[in-house]
Give the backbone structure.
Amino acid sequence: MHIRKYDMNFSRRQLLKGMAYGAAAGVLMPLEKVFAKDLSLLKAYPDELYSIDDQTKGKISVGDYITKDNVEYAKHLLDPSIYDQILNEGRRIKVRAPTTELRQLFNNSYYEAMQRNIAEGRGGKFDSKGNVVDSNGKAWSGGLPFTSPKNGQEIWANMAMSWGRADSNTYAIKQWDYGADGNLEYEYDFQWVELQMQARTDRKVFRGYEDEIRRQCVYFSNSQDVRGTSFLSNWSYDQTKIPDLYGYMPEFRRVRQLPANQRFEPLIPGSTWFLTDPWAAGDPYLTWGNHKIIDRKPMLLACNGNFADTDDNWKPKEQANNPKFWETEYEMSPDVIVTECEPVGYPRSPVSKKRVYADARNSVPNGCMRYDRQGKLWANFEMAFGQFVGGGADGNRVVLSADGKTPAWSWVYCLIYDHQNKRMSRTHHAKKGVGTESLFQIDEDWLFETYCTQQALQSLGRA
């Protein structure tokens, strides 16, 4: 017989107390100590917070599927968008065992950068404008600036400073767009590139770009009607500034600077996501305001697993009865921060607010719900993450990270569901696509010249 030292009510009270008083993440121990000593997360959170059986009073267990027949027992553990998809759209989710090792929730170099910061007593803080600087007042040098976020602005800064938790990322992405009737309407291949100029794990400033934090490019290589279309977003380190956005349209055969409201429109026909949506903090966090934490609780998230190790192109399995959805696995996260903010820097924004469900252990956004001007739920940007490991058809399959030794960690799939017209954009992180390829070991000078300048957009469009 296993005797519980702490009951669920104790754990829930501690999470709510932490939210009210701005306490550090962790119930039994601050997360900083877990980071510093590579301890099990069970040292920070009671096992009751990891138990789906406890959280559903024995109605759902690891290995079970959550369907419309039993979702009411798990409603308090799901965001409203996922609950609605299961109840009304026929989605199902399998429950997997929880992750209790913190390293498995991070890219290895990013994790070690945080350990280094903790060892050196180097933490993040806000300057007079609200930008992140280190304890010496200098530009942030990599890793989570706030390992235990205590307020809304800290969690949004954690999400915005380094999206993919690596100095550079290049993803091959395949996208399928489904209509309300469940029929496939569009199919695309595109390359998504992120290059950190600052807030890097190597503590360098890329090519001396001290006024920028990142450059991000999206290049559409397929289908034929959008092939060559590309966009480049140059982010200032100053998070009060809206990024400069450039686009190359094949029909015009030139690069154009685009207005800020382009961040709130689909880039291509049929898509349900905007530039503001990816990574939740798709815009600089100080162009949004009224950041606040509205809840803190255990929840089910796609925070690990889901890597399609049996498919050569890393494609997840489609749900047989409803191909709009992937077959997905969720697990218990003991501490999820529910946070909101409003688009104060975009007076013409059609969005009234975002609500994000972020795992407090790594500040990764697993769900970002977008609301329209009337305050009605518009769309949810769901992201799944995990290490790229598994027992594939050819045995143990491990994709290596940039260090060439440790397993790669990244996003695995995205589902962007439009609740108002029942449309879905279904994507996954592919090994390759039409004219695209995912790389974890990258020549950053090549990446910059190929994707991250206006001249690069022209070259891509005319290739």
Summary: The radius of gyration is 21 Å. The helical segments are 8-21, 31-37, 52-55, 80-89, 108-119, 152-161, 444-451, 454-462.
